[in-house]
Amino acid sequence: MITKRIIPCLDVRNGRVVKGVNFEGVRDVSSPVELGKFYSDSGADELVFYDITASVEGRALFTDILREVASTIFIPLTVGGGINTLEDFDRVLKCGADKVSVNSGAIRNPNLVYEAAQRYGDQCVVLSADIKRVNGEFRVFAKGGREDTGMEAIEWIKRCVGNGAGEVVVNSIDTDGVKKGFDVEMLRAVCDAVNVPVIASGGAGCVQDFIDLFHQVPDIDAGLAASVFHFGEIAIPDLKRTLSAEGINMRLI
Asked: Which of 11, 51, 176, 183 is the catalytic position?
């Protein structure tokens, strides 16, 4: 049986970890270096680092802080934000990232996923899709959830996986930061459409939400969250022990 993963996410702006609700109302949380080390030591399976304003500000990702985070953790690190070219992939990987997450850059240049997969391997390329319901349709959003692309999300994800994306992070804008549970309907639709690992993001508010996620969407590979971990509402070791007791296969320390 495949082990399910628990992944904390560091949304970084101006060198600090921040968190909002529905991608808005952002507030300061902590240092990414301190928080990254804490999660690595606490038994997190992986860590995600997003420079959340790099794309909208049209700049490269902050590599000095990324380098420091990578040097202090001992779990796989996925990095995203401002990834627009193969050179961006190269720079981030040289800073210590294991995988690179691409979102707006792939929307601007759909060939980026294919080119990166050819150069670095499918396992290195993570498609991050910010999705929101618009008139009953799952729609892809760009620039940190600020811009409706008009593209239907499931077809977009299938296209990118076909081009070589080895993993998909599904960010539900509708449930982001609301803490009322993961977007099960959206996640089932994505899992049914692709055969690569899918990570659920957006909506975790309590331990039961993770139990429901893994029971209700058996094909999901991982649950990603931010604020419930950042503010101490859920402790990762306790969460993983509870999930294991619920029959969900976990890596325990």
From this structure: 11
Residue 116 maps to a domain: yes
130 catalytic? Reply is yes
User: For position 94, which CATH number holds?
Assistant: 3.20.20.70
Measured CA to CA, the distance from residue 119 to residue 81 in angstroms comes to: 20
41 falls within a domain = yes
Higher-pLDDT residue of 114, 22: 114
Could you tell me the pTM of the whole model? 0.92
Other beta carbons within 10 angstroms of residue 151's beta carbon come to 18
State the total domains in the chain: 1
What's the CA gap between 192 and 204, in Å, rounded?
22
Q: Which of 45, 51, 88, 130 is catalytic?
A: 130
Interval 142-174: pLDDT, tens? 877 889 999 999 999 999 999 999 999 999 999
Instruction: Please classify residue 253 by burial: count the beta carbons closer than 10 Å to its beta carbon, then call 0-12 exposed, 13-18 middle and 19+ buried.
Output: exposed
Q: Identity (one letter) of the amino acid at 140?
A: V
- Please tell me which of 16-30, 48-62, 154-168 the model is most confident about, judged by mean pLDDT: 154-168
What integer pLDDT is reported at residue 83 of this predicted model? 93
The CA-based diameter of the chain, rounded to the nearest angstrom, is: 46
- Residue 122 token pair: 């499918």
Active-site residue, 11 included: yes
